[in-house]
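S.,

Sequence below, as promised.
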Amino acid sequence: MRELSCDEVMEQLPLLVVGDLNQDEEHDLDVHGLDCAECAAEIAESRKLAEVIEDIPRAESLNERIAQAMPLLRARLLAALPRRAGYGRMSSPLGPLYLVVSDQGLCAIHYHESEEGIVAWGKASDLVPSHDQASIRPYVRQLEEYFAGEREEFDVPLDLSTASPFAQRVLQATARVPFGHLVTYKSIANEIGEPGATRAVGNALGSNPIPIIVPCHRVVRSDGSLGGYTGGTDIKRHLLTLEKAMLVH
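The prediction came back faster than expected:
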């Protein structure tokens, strides 16, 4: 048995799909998956794809079988590739902000970051960011209007795919909190149908990849105190002062 790295597992997956791994090699994949949930999910998806390919009815020619399997293979391989994203920097009353935009929409706003930090974050999120100031202009315009007191709602596409499924539910609920209003972590937990998950909601909001536009600053503790904030409580207080926010009971 050999211990595999995550990169080695990814390299083996196409072989798993086409049935070119022996029993020992598949065992090594499964052993790695015991300690790595992300790789385990990829291994399971690859096995599903292999089963689909095996179930393709016998065709009269090899070319026909390949043609039938190709859309599935293409979709699976594209899903495994890191996505490209553009990033740029804007000035704000909170200090410089870095925005990252994928082909699906805005996927990150970073406080206190550097270009090197953006690239490192992208790598950890299966994105390949490259500097592209033009890609962030529509988002910069709406943020500037918000900071100037001229905008209360944002209408830009968002990409929450870098967050876990649970965190996505939390962020989607948080995105619905209106300008100028406050809700509690507990109320967000109730809204997503997880009344006992107040702490988990707080953790999800603490790693909110798109602050300001997904307004986690509008979520506070049940006693009315601010709670934490990724950019720091001074920034949270600044945003709430800008919005003249009031707690909704």
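The mean pLDDT is 87.

Coffee later?
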